[in-house]
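Quick one: structure tokens for this chain, please?
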Amino acid sequence: MEIAFWREDRLKQISGPLVSQIPIVCNSFTGIEGEADRGSLLSGALCTLAGAVSEDYDERGGGSGGALLKSLNLGILMQTRSEDAKQRIFSVQCATRLWRTNGIKLVGFVAETSTFIAELAEDDNDTVVKETRRLKKAVEDVGGPIDGL
């Protein structure tokens, strides 16, 4: 009998601290070559975390896997409410990558994600708006058209 190390309880323990790295990574960007790798590593880690969640969960957020995915998605999206445009941009990019790589697992969270998309589509920063369009497409590719946006 084989027991996996990365069970839902262990994944849950690292999901919050991993999401909390978003502002830290954003604040460390100074324009030095290779810095984008840090952002890529973090967004990749977030996607890998979501990918490690068991397939046997209730997509509406039930079960430990669904709750973890909901928490992860919402945690990333909450970072988009920062006053710092770099953080909003990077958070939207993380959310887009999460939806592109794990969208089928996140399909139960289209409604809550679309609320953030609507808010971000009206952002003052053009780059945030551009990245939000990419997020919207990633969500729609999985969940169908988001009405009213």
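The chain has a mean pLDDT of 86.
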